[in-house]
Amino acid sequence: MRMAMALAQAAADAGEVPVGCVIVDETTGEVVSEGSNGPVAAHDPTAHAEIVALRRAAQATANYRLTGLTLYVTLEPCAMCAGAISHARIGRVVWAADDAKGGAVVHGPRLFEQPTCHWRPQVEGGLLAEESATALRDFFRARRAGTARLAER
After folding, report:
1. How confident is the model over 68-86, as pLDDT tens digits?
2. Are the CB atoms for 73 and 106 separated by under 8 Å?
């Protein structure tokens, strides 16, 4: 999760929402792929950290099924990312901060609990939760302050 936190900080430094993701083969301990949020720079609404990391992991393994891998992400996955995680057959998902507004694992639609969900990974939230939540709050606080300054001009 520390690697994911560093990727989240890199995203924030680039003006993106600070979310980072690392996919690990728990059997070997090898990092298979990583990703950070990039929708703004990529002009791509699907360029969430999880999607970027899933695409890279599929390329690295030459397989669209990513069974036996663990996905670490700094924010509870949204519905789009949870759907992609299910389709990829990720074995385990670990996130830092819960997302009461946009999350889809323990909040919102609880995608993995739906009867139409094809694959249900093991899930665990809360690893470095406060650190991640603080980074997100700080990012949005700074963004709002910047917007307020522009409005004053």
Report:
1. 999 999 999 999 999 999 9
2. no
